[in-house]
From TrEMBL:
KW Transferase (keyword) present: no
UniProt-recorded name of the protein: Glutamate decarboxylase
A GO cellular-component term linked to this record: cytosol
Taxonomic lineage of the native organism: Bacteria, Bacillati, Actinomycetota, Actinomycetes, Pseudonocardiales
Key word Signal present: no
Gene3D superfamilies found in the cross-reference section: 3.90.1150.160, 4.10.280.50, Type I PLP-dependent aspartate aminotransferase-like (Major domain)
Originating species: Amycolatopsis xylanica
Amino acid sequence: MALHEGKQPAPHGGMNPLYVDNPALAAGVTLPHTRLGDDPLPADTALRLVRDELMLDGNARLNLATFVTTWMEPEADRLMAECVDKNMIDKDEYPQTAELERRCVTILADLWNAPDPTAVMGCSTTGSSEACMLAGMAFKRRWSKLGRTGRPNLVMGANVQVCWEKFCEYWEVEPRLVPMDGDRFHLTADEAVARCDENTIGVVAILGSTFDGSYEPVAEITAALDALQERTGLDIPVHVDGASGAMIAPFLDPDLVWDFRLPRVASINTSGHKYGLVYPGVGWAIWRDKAALPEELVFNVNYLGGDMPTFALNFSRPGAEVAAQYYTFVRLGRDGFRAVQQASRDVATYLATGIEALGPFTLLTRGDQLPVFAFTVKPDAGYTVFDVSRRLRERGWLVPAYTFPENRTDLAVLRIVVRNGFTRDLADLLLADLGRAVSEGIVTAPASGTAFHH
């Protein structure tokens, strides 16, 4: 029989039949984009196809934009897999998971120098954004009990995380944002007090600005508010947004007074999934005592067979992250946390010094508070921070470039976040790639040629 002449259609719809376990499936495998497919696929085939698409994501370990943990030990991975099916809200059915949450709250209260760590009010959340919403709600409810009739306002720097602006919009609170000015990139005591009045529900101080990694002067802010109360009688509480810094300062800056040692600090939050060293999905909100959290905001819910207090915006969520947070506390202890955070700070300061030495860059911060620093390009460099970011992306590095908020929109910077797992060796590789780009005299992508080689 003569062979058919000419081009034949690709067998199995173009899918290599060796790539899926059942070649008969290959002809019809199309991943759903807008509607469910008609037929199921074997688990390993579905896994393979979805993994293929996810290869287009960036490498999380090379993502120097995110504060979120991108590496945990295999033991933590296994523990989380064992707990992912436990509903955190069902404290009656999973009492030991609830106990681990309680222990974490007490451990954090002790770490943040609460007068009585066993008397604090606190809970886990899905992250710092939820924790900040809860703190803002407590502020507003406390203020409403004072019988004031004006519009409530919240004082904070323009460098706050967007969740605070969301809180103000959602709960109808006026955001009084202190703009950046010159070389002042965050809130100061004088600027905070100047915006306070009888309708101020609280002041937010940031322990670790996401813009440049710097600490705001919490003690100075509370002292200025103490003086304001002496003059006017206004008693305005402070919330410390320690999304990152509340898990750095206790270990690396123990003499820095920013926490519950200051009586005016009513509440603190942190992200367990940032420098708490846990994968995404856990934050913590803690109030110094019951008086700081209006009791009507705490609900006693009869759910799945038990009566339990709850104060959260979310309800059902996995217990895996709480278990992982407790594992991390057990695994590291104070000395272990100190060693991990010091290693991150050492790499950050080393990298900042190396970048400064290249010549075209000016540091705004040096990574000696949060292991985070920002830098900009000198005016005569011939390229922008956005060019630098694009060029580094060619090698897989994700380094964000952005402009500062209103009043300093003229300033555009790059920011590097050093996390656990980002080693000095990786820092040297980044410095080499950045130095190579600088030595070529351009940092923008070439007009032609291949940008990436295996």
